[in-house]
Amino acid sequence: MDYDLSQSGLLDSMETSDLTLMYFKNYDIIVAAGTLGSYVVVQVNIPFGDSNNNLTTYEKFPTVPDFGKFTSAKLEITSSISSSSTMYKYDISSVESDKIGEYMDLLVSEGFSNIGNFLDSKGNLVLNYTKDDIGVSIGLMGESFAVMVSSI
């Protein structure tokens, strides 16, 4: 039985005078193959980490991934520091250390840049990220893991 992938929406094509390209779309993975002049072109796009199609963000800051939802950490308290800043504190015992690194990678994959880190007055490392007009600081705060998000 013949099955036409183009009718299913899984296969598409693009053609110009120089390029013929067929690509297979399977959720987040795109495999493309074609010709460019006398060259064969193959490209595979696989997104980093989990699919961002289901990425949950903070309601007040829709460009910032929700640390608790991403890591399954238990939210202890949300505090509005000012009209433009909110602190999210998570139970440190519910945070797996490897998930912190994955969250930092997620911030970068979502377009945030690490703009520097510092030690707070208790010697805890605080990591700082920014994207457009949003700043995100993450680190230990007492017996909690804190994420502070601010409009800057």
Write the layout of secondary structure elements.
Elements: H1 5-8, E1 11-15, E2 19-26, E3 29-36, E4 39-45, H2 67-71, E5 75-82, E6 85-91, H3 97-109, E7 113-119, E8 125-131, E9 134-141, E10 144-151
Antiparallel strand pairs: 1-2, 2-3, 3-4, 5-6, 6-10, 7-8, 8-9, 9-10
* Strand order, largest beta sheet: 5-6-10-9-8-7
The helicity comes to: 10-25%
Unreliable segments of 5+ consecutive residues = 1-12, 17-32, 45-51
Q: Count every beta strand, where a strand is a DSSP E run of 2 or more residues.
A: 10
Number of domains as seen in the coordinates: 2
Describe the structure.
This protein has 152 residues and is mainly beta. The protein has two domains: 5-45, no CATH class; 52-151, no CATH class. The chain has helices at residues 5-8, 67-71, 97-109; strands at residues 11-15, 19-26, 29-36, 39-45, 75-82, 85-91, 113-119, 125-131, 134-141, 144-151. The strands form two sheets. It has a six-stranded antiparallel sheet with strand order 5-6-10-9-8-7, with no helix packed on it. The protein is globular. The model is unreliable at 1-12, 17-32 and 45-51 (pLDDT under 50).
